[in-house]
Design goal:
The chain has 12 helices and 15 strands. By secondary structure, it is α+β, with helices and mostly antiparallel strands. The chain folds into 2 domains: 4-113, 3-Layer(aba) Sandwich (Aminopeptidase); 117-261, Gcn5-related N-acetyltransferase (GNAT) (Aminopeptidase, 3-Layer(aba) Sandwich). It has a 7-stranded mixed β-sheet with strand order 9-10-11-12-13-8-14. Strand 2 and strand 3 form a beta hairpin. Helix 8 runs antiparallel to helix 9.
């Protein structure tokens, strides 16, 4: 197979295949395009099937993602094995795909806990009901009291450039990890070409200033939150944008779940995501076929 590097010009070609299969963020549009440079994603389309691979994170040359498109999952993986020829390793395989694959193939599966997605009930994040969310509600009430004239603005191709400029000016890379700087750079790229990705997002404004913003995709019954930024000087801004995003998409699209992606093994991110009490973890595995 002749694979090619994934670039922005490929969005229209790949979008029909990317439906967040198994509710995983890795098989969504921004899940692929935001991280294509980081992980060296490449693709090939053959006989109605999208094949993708990444630079191996485990010492080999390439790991392959789930092939997407026509036919059954086992048919697609069989075609991938035949094309690769030798030893096949797959990455980012959701737990729910393992049962189907085991019906036909022998492989070892190693869980990768640092890249498991945090899955929440949409109603939990939208309404924050119950004692366990009291701290979140208090912070939202403080935001509403401090900034009673706040507005929620839909991000569009027309205003995305203004938010990108705000990012460049107000969200500094100083003191950030290399991974966080990568995310900031590609957040700006998404905003600068916002219309191309077909995603949805909102900006939380106070007196015309961007206090926070979020960008994601609704795929099936799930909202995948790819980007969430806020200014810490606006107390409660993070909690407010999180709640409003879930509530808006719940009321508009009837979503059941919110996928807030993984914690990449970062303890601070882990604590922040656990503080919203996930319904379950979408586990992912690396497979080595025998």
């Amino acid at each position: 197979m002749d694979f090619k590097q994934i670039t922005l010009s490929d969005v229209g070609t790949l979008r029909p295949y990317l439906h967040a299969q198994y509710r995983s963020c890795d098989y969504s549009v921004l899940g692929v395009f935001m991280w294509a440079d980081r992980f060296g994603y490449e693709y090939k389309i053959e006989d109605g099937v999208l094949f993708m691979r990444e630079r191996s994170r485990h010492g080999g040359e390439y790991d392959y993602l789930l092939p997407l498109g026509e036919g059954s999952l086992c048919d697609r993986v069989r075609a991938l094995r035949e094309a690769v020829g030798g030893r096949l390793t797959m990455s980012l395989v959701p737990e729910d795909a393992l049962g189907e694959l085991r019906q036909e193939f022998d492989f070892t599966a190693a869980e990768e806990p640092d890249i498991a997605d945090y899955m929440y009930k949409a109603e939990d994040l939208a309404y924050l009901a119950g004692k366990k969310y009291s701290k979140k509600r208090n912070l939202i009430h403080q935001f509403e009291k401090l900034y009673p004239d706040y507005t929620l603005e839909t991000i569009t191709a027309e205003n995305a450039h203004r938010i990108a400029e705000c990012c460049a000016h107000d969200w500094s890379d100083a003191g950030l990890s290399e991974l966080a700087m990568y995310e900031n750079d590609h957040t700006r790229e998404v905003l600068e070409d916002f219309a191309a990705y077909g995603c949805t997002g909102y900006a939380l404004l106070t007196d015309g200033e961007v206090a926070a913003f979020c960008i994601g995709e609704v795929m099936g019954d799930t909202l995948i939150v790819h980007i969430e930024k806020g200014k810490r000087e606006y107390k409660g801004a993070f909690q407010m944008i999180n709640c409003l995003f879930a509530k808006t998409e719940l009321e508009k699209c009837g979503i059941r779940y919110v996928n807030r992606e993984d914690d990449v093994g970062d303890e601070g991110l882990r604590q922040a995501k656990q503080s919203y009490f996930p319904e379950y973890m979408l586990k992912k595995f690396r497979l080595e076929y025998e």
